[in-house]
Please model this.
Amino acid sequence: MQFTASSIMRTELVTCNVTSTLREVVRKMIDEKVGSVLIRQNEKFVGIIIDRDILTALVKKKDFDNISAAEIMSAPIDYCDANDNLETCKKIFEKTK
Model:
């Protein structure tokens, strides 16, 4: 039996807008108990912020109230289709290490 991405993925996406402040992103991560937030512009996903990005901003003494998600997000984002088998997903993400 082959597992697909849909068998292990989270179905409710946690998102913020590119104009959200870093403080808003962190609040969303805490409230939703997640380590990453997809960043959207209009209805398109344009980046991602992970907990490591937050730590980096903290060490660099960024102002969490005056820096936008767009300024620290990783982009573009890599993704696989929900119907892709896990081996295909693995190959997609290994390419960008």
